[in-house]
From TrEMBL, chain A:
TM ranges: 41-61, 105-130, 142-160, 166-185, 220-250, 270-292
Organism of derivation: Aerophototrophica crusticola
Name recorded for this polypeptide: Oligopeptide transport system permease protein OppC
Entry keywords, A to Z: Cell inner membrane, Cell membrane, Membrane, Peptide transport, Protein transport, Transmembrane, Transmembrane helix, Transport
Domain of life: Bacteria
Localisation per UniProt entry: Cell inner membrane; Cell membrane
Positions of the ABC transmembrane type-1 domain: 103-292
Automatic annotation (TrEMBL), chain B:
Name of the protein in question: Dipeptide ABC transporter ATP-binding protein
Lineage of producing organism: Bacteria, Pseudomonadati, Pseudomonadota, Alphaproteobacteria, Rhodospirillales
Membrane topology of the entry: Peripheral membrane protein
Classification via PANTHER family: D,D-DIPEPTIDE TRANSPORT ATP-BINDING PROTEIN DDPF-RELATED, TRANSPORT ATP-BINDING PROTEIN
GO biological-process terms attached to the record: peptide transport; transmembrane transport
Family: Belongs to the ABC transporter superfamily.
GO MF annotation, one: ATP binding
UniProtKB/TrEMBL annotation, chain C:
Keyword set includes Amino-acid biosynthesis: no
GO molecular function: ATP binding; ATP hydrolysis activity
Full protein name: ATP-binding cassette domain-containing protein
Protein's organism: Aerophototrophica crusticola
Lineage: Bacteria, Pseudomonadati, Pseudomonadota, Alphaproteobacteria, Rhodospirillales
Superkingdom: Bacteria
């Protein structure tokens, strides 16, 4: 604390250091410290890190290719001697590597789509919130209209028109998720806008784009980060659902949704086909949610 | 106390700031103007401090923001350094802001919590002197930090690491960094502890003396205003009740409202305070949405008569340099303090 | 005179993620019958937490040590249901923010009769009549109509009157007023102060006035206790404290206030430095970092309250303020290492 500058016993030490710049501790650093003190969040980050690394280095870890068919092993359970650690699927392909390939797709969809939603949502929401009035009404009505469009209907139309493609899944989910993001950012902006430091910046002659960039966005980003971590699992779930319905990725590429869908069909004679991808999906979702909760507590300790 | 030069720095003419407030239902509702500031005129000389006093809802903060064009005035003129400000917009207006700065009431809330103290103080420099080198900027910030009583090595700290009084020093440094001619102080010490208030008041007065600043000192605390001001203006419901030099307004206030205000201030002196006869006004401040007809103060005024309800009293000079807006103006009937 | 409240070595601690904060560090005092005691202090002096602890209203992370007795009954550690029999009945409290003290969705009348039903077992018409009497006592115009209004329909000054009326409903023996006029405008504050001065004469309740405003204290109180860093710095009769302060902090506070009654000076006296950090209070005197008479003994040893003049106590090692000892161990810090504001005062 800077109150130490006149502090009795600390005086001597401080006089020695006089002139030397003291490094401050930003709110981000405070939040970081609190986040790393949260055991569940840290464990979740580690688990999520391991899953991500496994997905990235899938080909190195597993001796099998994701689309190679082993005719002798169709729908068999886990076995060590052939390195089919998770067994094989109904088409005789190695389930371990397919689960990791599924992780790639699911994580990528989750993260890329969320990033897209983040960029569009933050820009749109902060502009609407900062300008307010008619601009705000107009921009938010557009959001309302888009919101009222049913997601599944929208995706089926896209698939019918453009055919099945992974990019369509990104676009479709991104189109919907940025709306929520924009609403959240707008709400936060409205409250930050009334803070005195915004008025101070205006009085100092700071231009509007700079006010939004330097003063508004850094102060609304906290709740946004929390929302992002909680949005990733939602997106992964939506992708799984789409794939489960057969609207997602194209064979032989796979995702957790596709794997779970196939596994569900074989639930009675080959339960491992359902269990492994389902466990991965569940663990990942858990991790994201714990990290999100940890971030919320870390960024806004007063809320507890 | 620095001598006041005669050059007029700021002239405010019949300034009005009205906010449209929706009343009634959504379908048949209509907009009623909330007259936060309603026809205020005054002028400010270079190096002078004008104290603006009034209770909450009298429009004193809105007046400050209206002058700075942070809120667009509904009507009236603000002439600053010979330029009419109300018709300005965009770049032209932003350029004027270099010469008029503001210090806020809540020291911590007026500082962006995500920026370092150095960045906060330097921000006006980046706006008005974008070509200034980083090193030069930093040197200027450090020099000013030392001047306002902050240790320059704290430049990389964040606002939450400072106490309220220190945060107010940061706010003052931010206002002073571009060498403004006028600073509007909006309740700069109200949020501070008693022992810190004196530090900040002294700092503001020192800076004024050193840089020949003009101050608009907005406050509800009559004792502080008396200490810092050359002249004092009393507002009530968006209108000027009385404006005069500090000595005459405190020694012989001519408006009944000013008299009640002065008499209401608790004095830290048990013998005086326990025995004094307060002028206690009845009732509360009327709503600015629906102000009384005629004189806005008549509903609480001990001297009100029929004429007060019918005719709006004009602000007129009743003694040299002493303007009052009252039909029944006159010195107080009793000692006030 | 019998003591209504006896507080002995009361301490209040708060557990925070960044360590323990000591808000109150052992204070002892009595509040006697029909006496008005002013507790003066700045933010963080512990003045509010002291009485929150007495009333058992501390936040969850706070704990109270020591003793606080109401007429011989120990309040610290008393179970909530027993405490509720005393709170609102024998000891009542008025808060700074009248909006938090009143429930927004209940009519004024209902809130007042509820208190009477709870503590006095009064029913319907009787309770309502008593509530009306109290509203009249605090001079609320059109009192009968107010009973049917909701808190938000009243102005701030009116709500504060209702709060006072509610506090007086059960004829408490002790009334604790925490910054009762701080949120109000000057003219409304004058109304409330006038009312409180009148009520003091009418009711027999002892009053504790917690405030940072020395002006309010001067007008209402008989005794004053000045707090700093969770301790009493000086206690005494109101005239002693205001006219002959014995502690450098009290003296500094009084002289740092601009006054309507004095000629304008060019520079106000300012106590240097910042309010204390309760997480890291120094070992010796809590005021040492800001005191212009600081010497080695203040750093080493905590000064205890001692009688300076008859009835007036100070927690200070100085013999007297008129002739502060010129201790060679004084002034531990070279002037040029201090920020200019502090430097000015020290070298002046």
């Amino acid at each position: 604390m800077a109150t130490d500058i006149t502090g009795g016993t600390k005086r001597a030490a401080l006089i020695e250091k006089a002139g030397e710049e003291v490094q401050g501790r930003s709110l981000w650093q405070d939040a970081q410290r609190r986040l790393f003190a949260n055991k569940m969040a840290v464990a979740s980050m580690i688990v999520l890190g391991i899953i991500t690394l496994m997905a990235v280095f899938a080909d190195v870890i597993s001796p099998h290719a994701y689309d190679e068919v082993y005719w002798d092993y169709i729908g068999v359970g886990p076995q060590w001697e052939n390195n089919h650690w998770f067994g094989t699927d109904a088409n005789g392909r190695d389930l371990f590597i397919r689960t990791l390939y599924g992780a790639r797709v699911s994580l990528m969809v989750g993260i890329v789509t969320t990033l897209v939603a983040l960029i569009i949502g933050v820009t749109y929401g902060s502009i609407a919130g900062y300008f307010g009035g008619r601009v705000d009404s107009l921009m938010m009505r557009v959001v309302d209209v888009l919101y009222s469009m049913p997601l599944m209907f929208f995706i089926i139309i896209l698939v019918v028109v453009f055919g099945r493609h992974i990019v369509l899944v990104f676009i479709a989910i991104g189109c919907v998720e940025w709306l929520t993001m924009a609403r959240i950012v707008r709400g936060q902006t409205l409250s930050v806008k009334r803070k005195e430091y915004i008025e101070a910046a205006r009085a100092s002659g700071v231009s509007t784009p700079n006010i939004i960039r330097r003063h508004i966005i850094p102060n609304v980003i906290g709740p946004v980060i929390v929302f992002v971590t909680l949005m990733v699992p939602v997106v992964i779930l939506v992708e799984s659902f789409l794939s489960f319905l057969g609207l997602g990725v194209q064979e032989p590429m796979t995702s957790w949704g596709v794997l779970i869908s196939e596994g569900a069909a074989q639930m009675e004679n080959a339960p491992h086909m359902l269990i492994f991808p389902a466990v991965f999906l569940a663990v990942t979702l858990f991790c994201f949610n714990f990290i999100g909760d940890g971030l919320r507590d870390a960024l806004d300790p007063k809320d507890r | 106390m620095p001598p006041v030069e005669n050059a007029e720095l700021l002239r405010v003419q019949d300034l009005k700031v009205h906010f449209p407030i929706r009343t009634g239902g959504i379908v048949f509702g209509q907009y009623t103007p909330l007259k936060a500031v309603d026809g205020v005129s005054f002028s400010l000389k270079a190096g002078e401090t004008l104290g603006i006093v009034g209770e909450s809802g009298c429009g004193k903060s809105t007046l400050g923001r209206g002058i700075l064009q942070l809120i667009k005035p509904t009507d009236g003129k603000v002439v600053f350094l010979g330029n009419e400000m109300t018709s300005m917009a965009g770049e032209q207006l932003r350029a004027q802001r270099q010469h008029m700065q503001i210090v806020f009431q809540d020291p911590l809330a007026s500082l962006n919590p995500r920026m370092t103290v150095g960045d906060i103080i330097a921000e006006p420099l980046t706006v008005f002197f974008p070509k200034m080198s980083v090193a030069e900027r930093k040197a200027k910030v450090k020099a000013l930090m030392a001047k306002v009583g902050l240790l320059p090595q704290m430049i990389n700290r964040y606002p939450h690491e400072f106490s309220g009084g220190q945060c107010q020093r940061i706010g003052i440094a931010r206002a002073m960094i571009v060498d403004p001619k006028m600073v509007i102080c909006d309740e700069p010490v109200s949020a501070l502890d008693v022992s810190i208030q004196a530090q900040i008041v002294n700092l503001l007065m020192d800076l004024q003396q050193e840089f020949g600043l003009s101050l608009l000192f907005i406050s509800h605390d009559l004792s502080v205003v008396r200490h810092v001001s050359h002249r004092v203006m009393v507002l009530y419901l968006g209108k000027v009740m009385e404006i005069a030099s500090r000595d005459s307004i405190y020694a012989e206030p001519l408006h009944p409202y000013t008299q009640a205000l002065i008499s209401a201030v608790p004095i830290p002196d048990p013998d005086l305070e326990k025995n004094k006869q307060r002028i206690v006004l009845g009732g509360d401040l009327p709503s600015p949405m629906n102000p009384p007809s005629g004189c806005v103060f008549r509903t609480r005024c001990p001297r009100a008569t029929d004429i007060c309800a019918q005719v709006v009293p004009k602000l007129e000079e009743k003694a040299p340099g002493h303007q009052v807006a009252c039909h029944h103006w006159g010195p107080p009937a009793q000692a006030l303090v | 005179m019998a003591a209504v409240l006896e507080v002995r070595d009361l301490q209040v601690r708060f557990a925070t993620p960044d360590g323990e904060v000591s808000a109150v560090n052992g204070v002892s005092f009595d509040v006697n019958e029909s006496e008005c005691v002013g507790i003066v202090g700045e933010s963080g002096s512990g003045k509010s937490q002291l009485f929150m602890a007495v009333m058992g209203l501390l936040a969850k992370n706070g704990r109270t040590l020591g003793s606080a007795k109401y007429r011989g009954t120990e309040l610290v550690g008393m179970p909530v249901d027993k405490l509720n029999k005393i709170r609102g009945d024998k000891i009542a409290m008025i808060f700074q923010d009248s909006m938090t003290g009143l429930t927004p969705h209940l009519r004024i009348g209902r809130q007042m009769t509820e208190v009477l039903e709870e503590h006095k077992g009064m029913g319907g018409a009787d309770a309502r009549a008593r509530a009306l009497d109290m509203l009249n006592l605090v001079r609320i115009p059109e009192a009968a109509r107010r009973l049917n209004q909701y808190p938000h329909e009243l102005s701030g000054g009116m709500r504060q009157r209702v709060m006072i009326a509610m506090a007086l409903l059960c004829e408490p023996e002790l009334l604790i007023a925490d910054e009762p006029t701080t949120a109000l405008d000057v003219t409304v504050q004058a109304q409330i102060l006038e009312l409180m001065a009148d009520l003091k004469r009418v009711t027999k309740a002892a009053v504790v006035l917690i405030t940072h405003d020395l002006g309010t204290v001067a007008g209402l109180c008989d005794k004053v206790q000045v707090m700093y860093g969770g301790r009493f710095m000086e206690t005494g009769d109101v005239r002693q404290i205001f006219y002959k302060p014995q502690h450098p902090y009290t003296k500094g506070l009084l002289s740092s206030m601009p006054r309507l009654t004095e000629d304008r000076r060019t520079t106000l006296y300012a106590i240097p430095g910042q309010p204390p950090n309760l997480q890291r209070l120094p070992a010796g005197c809590p005021f040492q970092e800001r005191c212009e008479f600081v010497h080695q003994r203040c750093v080493d040893e905590l000064p205890l309250l001692q009688e300076a003049r008859p009835g007036q106590f100070k927690a200070c090692h100085l013999e007297s303020l008129e002739h502060p000892v010129d201790d060679p161990t004084r002034a531990a810090i070279p002037a040029e290492a201090m920020p200019p504001v502090i430097r000015d005062v020290r070298t002046a």
